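Collaborator request, handled under Task 6.
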Amino acid sequence: LGAFRLEAGLVYEQPGHGLQRKWVMLANPKEPSSVIGYLKGSIYVLGAGDEAPVEEMNATADQDEDVEENLLRPPGMNPEPADLMIKVFQGEDMPQYDPSFKTGIRALDRLTKQEDKEDCDPYLKISFAGRTGTSSSIDNTHNPKWMAELHPALMRPPMCDKT
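Structure tokens returned to the collaborator:
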């Protein structure tokens, strides 16, 4: 599978005498500079009289975590900055608001004399490796044109492969 070495003293010095829900970068034991996988887990080093902590599972927190910041790397395995360029051109036929919500919005639009408003202000939200980028919002259109480039900050080797 892979290897990751860690000193017990380092773990014991952490709050609660452990590292909770951390990712570790697994290296090839024969070639330590080669990453072959990742593993997420918790580790505790308890002495006499120490009580084992209870971890609470939180699926929402796992989805929003900044993986790169929560990653333990082997010594000598320093990440290199990388540039991922995402070009965003346009969207087509964006959905309208929920009809039940739209009734209240239409009444508000009549009061503010904006009856011709299209009720769609689209924007983009891109997540990668726990980091999120958001584009500007384009008002009153179901067919927005951004013509933009997004450059999320990345480190190599990458931890995630899903955008």
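The cover message to the collaborator said: "The beta strands are 18-28, 31-44, 71-72, 80-83, 86-90, 125-128, 131-134, 145-150, 153-156. The first strand starts at residue 18 and ends at 28. Please let us know whether this matches your experimental observations."
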